Amino acid sequence: MRQKTVNPAPLLLLSLAPVAAWAAWLGWDQQRDVHPDGSVTGPYEAWQVIGLVLTLLVPVCWAAARRHTVTAALGTTAGLTAAAWYDWSDDSSGLFAIGVGLVMVASLLVTTAVSAVIVSVTGDGRRDGSAPRPAA
């Protein structure tokens, strides 16, 4: 029996893409906004987070369409978790760990669900676009 070799390139790509996307969408905005009523929001705006999510859908869908579903979920989750940890670890309260944990769990759930949907939509797993053979 021939053993299948694992190609680490998709996992590496799907781990680095979230880090780069985080830096592009969220990494530059570190200031909280103080409103006239004294409330504080931020540092991110909703459009930045939406942009991050939409950007990451591309590599997740790409990997899932090529049947790298586990890689899509784990690579993206690992990259987002590492980026959040790096960005938020200077918080002196220590509560950043809860936020990082929530990012990890949410990204794992969402990327798993998106991968499952893509696999079910793209058919029986044939990459060449050929029709499945009829049962004999």
From TrEMBL:
Residues 1-23 form the signal peptide. Keywords: Membrane, Signal, Transmembrane, Transmembrane helix. This is Uncharacterized protein. It comes from the Bacteria. The chain crosses the membrane at residues 47-65, 70-88, 94-119.
